[in-house]
Write a structure and sequence with these properties.
The chain is α+β, with helices and mostly antiparallel strands. The chain has 4 helices and 16 strands. It folds into 2 domains: about 110 residues, Roll (DNA Polymerase III, Chain A, domain 2), CATH 3.10.150; about 110 residues, DNA Polymerase III, Chain A, domain 2, CATH 3.10.150. The strands form 3 sheets. A 9-stranded antiparallel β-sheet has the order 4-3-2-6-9-8-7-1-5, covered by helices on one side. It has a 4-stranded antiparallel β-sheet with strand order 13-12-11-14. Strand 8 and strand 9 form a beta hairpin.
């Protein structure tokens, strides 16, 4: 794998995915970000904690397509400290990744791409769209009430469900910590008629809210009874 990318572009993509990676991991590869350089001139990035997975894609000059995994936080720290406007060359071979930018040169250990866990989406039968502003409002008006007690895991998120309110079909979002309750009701989006009740975990809510500040338009939502996917264009 060999690709060249502008420092700001690399930093933006890494900032999206590295925050899902825990600082301490008993499984070494979960500390890594998956990098895949494609022949179409894209550098795809993926990180996961086995519960939440974030994918992002940025433009790059790809000389040799390929993929590898490297420490997410280390690569992010290196990119952050490089000079503004630097062109960063990423080369991976024989268990090492070399990062070159101007006179700076770094070498990091890698782990095989085949060992990287990918969350299987399965079938996601319910599909609908929400505007970015509306999704921001839903999160901002409910997430303060999400419980932080790990023993009451069923309160550690925002509960999304469809219902009827005065004969009108609606989508409701609710969060509670057992002492306070926050609830938002909006008109049911097209496609959400048979939506199952789901709880969006606190960590997913936090990461999604950060990404929403960088996009416009609408967000595609697809879900089943056990998984939910938010499509924000280049970031998923």
């Amino acid at each position: 794998m060999k690709a060249t990318i502008e420092r700001a572009t690399l930093l933006k993509g890494l900032s999206h995915v590295q925050s899902v990676v825990e600082r301490r991991n008993t499984i070494p590869i979960l500390s890594n970000v998956l990098l895949e350089a494609t022949a179409e001139g894209q550098l795809r990035m993926m990180a996961t904690d086995l519960d939440l997975q974030i994918n992002d894609s940025v433009a790059a000059a790809v000389d040799q397509p390929g993929s590898t995994t490297v420490s997410a936080h280390t690569l992010f720290d290196i990119a952050r400290k490089l000079p503004e406007g630097a062109q960063v060359q990423l080369t991976a071979a024989e268990g090492r990744m070399t990062i070159v930018a101007g006179r700076a040169r770094f070498s990091l250990g890698t782990l095989p791409r085949d060992d990287f866990p990918v969350i299987a989406e399965g079938e996601l039968p319910t599909q609908f769209e929400l505007s970015v502003e509306l999704l921001k409002q839903i999160i901002d008006k409910t997430r303060f009430a999400i419980s932080t007690e790990e023993t009451r895991y069923y309160l550690n998120g925002i509960f999304l469900h469809v219902a009827e309110d005065n004969g009108q079909p609606v989508l409701k979002a609710a969060a509670t910590d057992g002492h306070r309750l926050a609830r938002v009701t909006i008109e049911r989006p097209n496609g959400a008629e048979d939506m199952p009740d789901v709880i969006v975990p606190r960590k997913c809510v936090a990461e999604l809210r950060k990404l929403l500040d960088e996009v416009d338009g609408s967000v595609g939502v697809t879900l089943s009874g056990t998984k939910i996917r938010f499509d924000l264009g280049q970031a998923i």
